[in-house]
What we know:
about 45% helix; 6 helices; single chain; alpha/beta
Amino acid sequence: MYYIASDHAGLVVKNFILEYFKLKGLEIKDLYKLEKDSKVDYPDMAFLVAKEVQKDKANKGILICGSGIGVSIGANRFKDIRAALCTDSYMAKMARMHNDANVLCLGERVSGLGVIESILEAFLNTDFEGGRHTLRVNKLYN
């Protein structure tokens, strides 16, 4: 299951991603319904997604704020969360393939919707390579 949340600075991208998932027939749960003129703090959104992703190793999350930095810092505070801020598809591919990233972080003020779409494609369609990378990822928790 994918979980998504954004602060007010990421609402346009969040809505784009929700529509993207719908068009692709993929399941995603919006953890915080945000109105156009609402304000919400990025740490609160990061915590919502991180807690859901922690519940099951198969879960993944997507977080959006203005730069993507705040949500990535917030999510990475949680055990077993590997939140990756990606600004292009190569970063998303490597985040999944080599780092087993389970939360994708995006910045609405950093990347356009076309780039966001290519990042999503890479993140969703790349598996963790395992092998030597498993040893490296495990070192993050020692």
